[in-house]
Amino acid sequence: MQVRAQLKSLRISPRKVRLVSGIIKGLDATNAAFQLEHIIKRSSRPMLKLLNSAVANAKNNFKLAKENLYIKDIVVDEGTKLKRFKPKGFGMTSPIEKKTSHITIVLEEKVPGLK
Predict the structure, then answer these.
(1) I need a labelling partner for 77 at 20 to 30 A (CA). Which of 9, 22, 38, 97 fits?
(2) pTM
């Protein structure tokens, strides 16, 4: 049984979020939560909230045990860009793109059917 949770339009660049997602991919849910609490990156707090949401979905909707879940897949996609301009010399401007991220986390059971 796969359980999914999504976070959209996180105002952190996908490149920076992928650093954290690569660390916890493949870990079990409790160990990944412990890792995310101790990683000193700005994206670790929203990822921890997303992981806790996915675990709560698994427990409430599908009656799965938290200890039996692991992170099967994490996908970090690029969201919409906020386009801004910065003034430069001689009356010119340069574009600034403020990137956002869409994160999808997929949890699966280690032992299928264990309650």
Answers:
(1) 38
(2) 0.92
